[in-house]
Amino acid sequence: MLNYILRRLCWSMLALLAMSLLVFAGVYAIGNPVDILVNPQADQAEITRSIAQLGLDRPLWQQYWHFLKGALGGDLGISFVAGVPAITLILERLPATLELALLAMLIAVALGVPLGLLAGLKPESWPARTIMAGSILGFSLPTFWVGLMLILLFSVQLGWLPTTGRGPTVELLGIPVSFLSWEGLRHLILPATNLALFKLALLIRLVRAGTREAMLQDYVRHARAKGVAEHDILRVHVLPNILIPVVTVAGLEFGSLLAFAVVTETVFAWPGMGKLLIDSIGLLDRPVIVAYLLVTVCLFILINLVVDLLYAALDPRMRLGSQS
Amino acid sequence: MSAMIAAPSPLREASASFVRDRIALAAMVLLCLLLTAALGASLLSPQNPYDLAQLDILDARLAPGSASSAGGTYWLGSDGQGRDLLSAILYGLRISLGVGILSTLVALALGLAIGLASARAGGWIDALVMRVVDLQLSFPSILVALILLAVAGQGVDRIIVALIVVQWAYYARTVRGAALVELKREYVDAAVCAGYGEARILFRHVLPNVLPPLIVVATVQVAHAIALEATLSFLGLGLPITEPSLGLLIANGYTYLLAGQYWISMFPGLALLLTIVAINLVGDRLRDVLNPRLQ
Predict the structure, then answer these.
(1) Which of A129, A254, B133, B157 pairs with A228 at a CA distance of 20 to 30 A?
(2) Can you tell me the distance from the alpha carbon of A207 to that of A190, in angstroms, rounded to the nearest whole number?
(3) B14-45+82-294 maps to which CATH number?
């Protein structure tokens, strides 16, 4: 097990290094780094000073070393627009994005597991067929368009929920959150639902396939032969087996939720990292773009690592496989 | 010669089995209609939506079914510039489908070549290629595309490149897996014994056997590519305003949506939805038909 953890850690560090090289190459090789890192409104003297300060007149490998040192120390440049360190801007927006993604994942799991079970137990019944048709629709609907239609229906036509924005926040351990106040929750519910739909469709399919497979296994037949009640078979024998892939996929997909939050945040004007990224791209505020990329990449590698370790903890076959 | 005579029968069998599912058949018909509409956009649409001389700003934001000042009817309404929405959707459909299909085909060719070569080479080359594929697939496609477009800027060529970069790894992994199985088969040994060259064995013997699972992946990927392009265009990172795809049309309607002028965003979205659903249903059915385990 320790061996496995060490190997995963090494792989994560390698991935991080590879991604930092890619981001560096993207910023320094494709575009002119002066255009990317120095404020375009600066005059010639300021540009020369910045080039020397950023080390852009030194060889490429020294520049990469400089960039890496800065990144490790959390120094990713100053935002052209806000005039504060880019990393501060990103970290300020991080809680809003995390809250949105966490609630979306909660909705997807809370609805996806029971619906998938229902669809898997009686695959030919009409509720199962309706659920599966809904899941195909959930896969096909473009997230941003569903968001617009949700606003149109619930905010513009019915007037039940606010159209955009985050609303008031409450401090929880020094972090601003929305879900503790009624008004904040009202702002949160539409974007979170929007973000959850795609993952909900995915989880329904996953749980349905898992249920159908599990119901054919010998242990289910054996439990039936022993006279175990049908709901106990589900609870004790089927559910734990389905939950292994559900935990893995929910974990892995959490990273993609963070990425897709860019779309939902833009539609609902939700003040998270994704909205900041799109605004920064529009304003050509490049240090913020670079900072967003590095923070997201770190989050991703962290999530992948945690999921791998969780998977090993949940599924004994993985641990045995890694020892041999 | 005997192989050529035998060839049509599995294809006919597959198409007969495809047609048996009514929903898939309806999706196929819908997809053909959409493709025809996209190809014939300049003939079918009542107006050239990008010829500014044909637009009348006084006709802006008219509800569906309103009469136009030129005497026609805006069946699906008009947008903020007085553009007939039906025409704009047909032209947008052409761009969306074109970008989606072209990028998928190029990515497919690239992934095929890399996957086949990787499976054949084996050893450290194979390991390296697969690590790169793993690394790329551990990041969601939208993030990779966002990074590329943020660095490289907008344009049709750039979005196609971004969509290719996002997709190739899927094909490379699928091909490599299938090719590894095929390379161990006896017909490959036979071809080696017959003295055929490396390239001929890979492309004439192995390739036809790894294609069916790839066709399924590629069909579904076209839908993904179209949705991704629409999303990126909606975010303002995809296609320029001069060549609006369905995603950009939806984005343009966003501002009017809050005023209750729903049609500018809703109808392009429905066109996008129909396209993606049709492709997904056809892909789903293809998977069942081409999967030997289910027959």
Answers:
(1) A129
(2) 25
(3) 1.10.3720.10
User: Among A15, A256, A262, whose Cβ lies nearest the Cβ of B135?
Assistant: A15
Residues of B in contact with A37 (CB under 8 A): none
Q: Which two tokens stand for residue A187?
A: 């702002």
Q: Looking at the partner chain, which of A30, A259, A260 has a beta carbon nearest the beta carbon of B152? A: A30
In DSSP notation, B140-203 reads -HHHHHHHHHHHH---HHHHHHHHHHHHHHHHHHHHHHHHHHHHTSHHHHHHHHTT--HHHIII
The pair of structure tokens assigned to A276 is 């900041």
The proportion of chain A whose per-residue pLDDT surpasses 90, expressed as a percent, equals: 1
B105 pLDDT band, cuts 50/70/90, is very high
**Among the partner residues A26, A136, A263, nearest to B231 by beta-carbon distance:** A263
**Residue B236 to residue A278, Cβ atoms within 8 A:** yes
Decide if B273 touches A, using CB distance below 8 A: yes
DSSP 8-state secondary structure symbol assigned to residue B63: P
Kindly give the pairing relationship between strand B66-67 and strand A175-177. Answer: unpaired
Q: Read off the pLDDT of residues A93-135 as tens digits, 9 standing for 90 and up.
A: 888 888 889 899 999 988 988 888 888 888 778 888 888 888 8
Is residue A54 scored above 70 in pLDDT? no
pTM: 0.79
pLDDT bracket for residue A10 (50, 70, 90): confident
State the pLDDT at residue A323. 45
Which residues of chain A lie closer than 8 angstroms to B276, CB-CB? 140-142
CB interface of B with A, residues 123-182, below 8 Å = 135, 138-140, 142-143, 146-147, 150-152
Across chain B, which distance is largest between two alpha carbons, in Å? Answer: 76
